[in-house]
Design brief:
Bound molecules: MU-OXO-diiron
CATH class: Mainly Alpha
Largest sheet: none
Number of strands: 0
Distance between the termini: 31 Å
Low-confidence stretches: none
Strand content: under 5%
Number of domains: 1
C-alpha cells in the first residue's frame, strides 16, 4: 500500500502533468494564430505526451489500490513575445518538472516504496529527453533570430514530429 504522503505527492504530480498539457496546448494555439502550423503541431504532440504522463501516474495509483483525486488545473499563459520566448519557457518549465520528478523519487526512497522507484525511473529518463528536445529547438531559434525563411524551414521540420 502506498503511504499517504506519497499518494498525495503523486496526485499533485498528476495535476502538474495535466497543467503541462494545458500549457503546451495554449502554446499550440499561439502558434496557430501566428500561422506556424509546424510549431503548433509540435506543441499538440507535446500536449498529448503530457496527458499520457499524467495517465501513467493515474494508472500507477489505481494499480496499487490507491485513490486518484483530481484537482483544478491552473489557467495557462496565453501570449508570448516571440517563438524564442515560448521555447525559453518550455525549457524552464521542463527543468521545473525534472525537479519535481526528482523530489518524488527522493520521497519514494524515503518511504521505501520500491514499485514507485521503478516507475519513477522511467520518468527520470524521459525528463532527460524532454529537456534536450526543448534545449535543441531553443538553440535553433537563437541561431535563426527572426529570419523568415529559416523560421519556415524549422516550422516544416517541427511539423514532421511523430508521436512521442
Ligand atoms: Fe511530463 Fe514534459 O514532462
Amino acid at each position: 500500500m502506498i503511504t499517504k504522503v506519497l499518494q498525495e505527492a503523486i496526485n499533485d504530480q498528476i495535476n502538474k502533468e495535466f497543467f503541462s498539457s494545458y500549457l503546451y496546448l495554449s502554446m499550440a494555439a499561439y502558434f496557430e494564430d501566428k500561422n506556424l502550423p509546424g510549431f503548433a503541431h509540435w506543441m499538440r504532440r507535446q500536449a498529448d505526451e503530457e496527458r499520457e504522463h499524467g495517465m501513467k501516474f493515474y494508472d500507477f495509483l489505481v494499480e496499487r489500490g490507491s485513490r486518484v483525486t483530481l484537482k483544478a488545473i491552473d489557467t495557462p499563459k496565453t501570449d508570448w513575445k516571440s517563438s524564442l520566448e515560448v521555447f525559453d519557457e518550455v525549457a524552464g518549465h521542463e527543468a521545473k518538472v525534472t525537479a519535481s520528478i526528482n523530489a518524488l523519487y527522493e520521497l519514494a526512497l524515503k518511504e521505501k516504496d520500491y514499485p514507485a522507484q521503478v516507475m519513477l525511473q522511467w520518468f527520470i529518463t524521459e525528463q532527460v529527453e524532454e529537456e534536450k528536445n526543448a534545449a535543441d529547438i531553443l538553440a535553433n531559434l537563437k541561431l535563426i533570430e527572426d529570419r523568415g525563411p529559416a523560421v519556415l524551414m524549422l516550422d516544416h521540420r517541427l511539423g514532421k514530429r511523430g508521436s512521442g
